[in-house]
């Protein structure tokens, strides 16, 4: 093999390496960019405890403002004319919330949250993405189902769900509704008529192991040096 042939083989080998490294980088982008994947949003039938919970008991009855920080600073919630209500047993009692012919009842404690415009929109943004989100929900009886949209870290819609409030016990009891996503959720938006909630809970995506991140960084550096051997 002469000098020119050796140089050609070396060039081809380097080109193959560069091609493989670029393919690997593209595949890794699919891992790091969940918006490139299709999410499966599924209902969670049984209530789960989650990593953190928001019961609204720390908020006084009244208008908390929008946005408001909940889950001890881990989550931000926005709403159309939001109101923190309390359980009452007679319609028209100050601080209570009517869900049609009966007042709403908080699931735990005495307080809950509502977007008090009809139809109104609420949105919750997670500081760290979550794989599961749920709580107890209700809305004014006689109106269409509430709709929920789930978004990834890029703000892309990854799934939708609807919730029909059946008014269990016909006394203002809120109903459990929870969801799991195969793609991490960064925010959830809902729309409906006086949509109320209580006892929200989340399951946060585990942070990548430090060793895994170091391995990825090492592979990227190795690939760069193979493509730029003079460095």
Structure description:
It is a single chain. This protein has two helices and eleven strands. It has helices at 3-32, 210-227; strands spanning 41-44, 52-54, 68-70, 75-79, 82-86, 111-115, 120-138, 146-151, 157-163, 175-192, 196-204. Strands 1, 2, 3, 4, 5, 6, 7, 8, 9, 10 and 11 form an eleven-stranded antiparallel beta sheet that branches. Helix 1 (3-32) runs antiparallel to helix 2. The protein is globular, with a radius of gyration of 25 Å. The protein starts with a helix and ends with a helix. The model is unreliable at 25-31 and 209-214 (pLDDT under 50).
Brief synopsis:
The protein has helices spanning 3-32, 210-227, and strands at 41-44, 52-54, 68-70, 75-79, 82-86, 111-115, 120-138, 146-151, 157-163, 175-192, 196-204.
